Amino acid sequence: MIRVLDARFLTTAVEEKGWPPGDAPEIAFVGRSNVGKSSMINALTGRRKLVRVSNTPGRTRTLNFFDAVLEKDGLRRTVRLADLPGYGFARVSHAERASWERMITTYLERRTSLRGVVAIVDAEVGATEDDVRTLAYLVNAGRQVLVAATKLDRLGKAHRKPQLAAIAERLSVPRDTVLGFSATDKLGVPQVWESLWMATS
Ligand SMILES: Nc1nc2c(ncn2[C@@H]2O[C@H](COP(=O)(O)OP(=O)(O)OP(=O)(O)O)[C@@H](O)[C@H]2O)c(=O)[nH]1
Ligand SMILES: [Mg+2]
After folding, report:
1. Residue of 40, 44, 53, 134 to test ligand 1 pocket, by largest number of atoms within 8 Å of CB
2. Ligand 1 pocket: which residues have CB below 6 Å?
3. SS3 of 77, please?
4. How far is the centre of ligand 2, averaged over its atoms, from the C-alpha of 104 (Å)?
5. Which ligand 1 atom is at minimum distance from the Cα of 59?
6. What tens digit of pLDDT does each residue of 10-38 get?
7. Of all helices (H) and strands (E), which one includes residue 184?
8. Percent residues over pLDDT 70 in the chain
9. Any idea where the domains of the chain sit in the sequence?
10. What are 68-88's pLDDT values in tens digits?
């Protein structure tokens, strides 16, 4: 069992010089705009309002860093979480989108303390073109990826396993790297932490 002893906001950054020091193993959360990245961090840390959640897509526009102090089997570890702006948000200009993309890819390619990436997809929608592209990009960049299919609460129980298998197939990743999740129903929280604990070991 993994316990979250503490979770706190660290800093916000746009450019590399604003990133916090790489003195803790880091996990980044990526996914389409409005998919539920910020909600997932709140659910994982058990803090309702650690990260701002919104009905308006494109709410998170900067890199936001959080520290979570974890404990498992008497071992304590600080893991740094990076909430990234979502991709695929249509209602911004080309220039703005290009600058977001640069901010995200610079981070994903250059961040040396980054141990793994949680790629979040919508369980109800399934993996989109954008998700497929992002997964391929992350794998190609040599990043260790865990796929979290969130909003699983929106799927009837009988549809969940087949949908997770379909997502794995579409993203061309092993079935056991796709975990179901729900921020509202708190599904998958221990499983995601176990996976992140291993990634940061
Ligand atoms: N039913 C359900 N709704 C969710 C879940 N997670 C998030 N939501 C809702 O989805 C919307 C977007 O959630 P956010 O966590 O802000 O999404 P985000 O990916 O951080 O969005 P951006 O920062 O805009 O990219 C909000 O209305 C949430 O309440 C979930 O597990 N189940
Ligand atoms: Mg967000």
Report:
1. 53
2. 31, 33-39, 53-55, 57-60, 85-86, 150-151, 153-154, 182-184
3. strand
4. 14
5. 24
6. 999 989 999 999 999 999 999 998 999 98
7. none
8. 95
9. 2-190
10. 999 999 999 999 999 998 876
- Strand ranges (DSSP E) for the chain? 2-13, 26-31, 63-72, 75-83, 114-122, 145-150, 178-180
Angle CA 35–63–85, to nearest 5: 25
**Which among 130, 119, 134, 138 has a CA at the least distance from the CA of 196?**
119
Instruction: Find out if CATH 3.40.50.300 is the number for domain 2-190.
Output: yes
Q: Give all strands of the β-sheet with 114-122 in edge-to-edge order.
A: 2-13, 63-72, 75-83, 26-31, 114-122, 145-150, 178-180
Cα distance between residue 196 and residue 201, in whole Å: 9
Backbone angles phi, psi at 148, to 5 degrees: -115, 120
Q: Which of 67, 141, 139, 80 shows the shortest CA–CA distance to 106?
A: 141
Is pTM, for the whole model, over 0.85? yes
Q: How confident is the model at residue 99 (pLDDT cuts 50, 70, 90)?
A: confident
Contact 47, 98 (CB under 8 A): no
Residue nearest to atom 9 of ligand 1 (CA): 36
- Ligand 1 atom at shortest distance from the alpha carbon of 154: 1
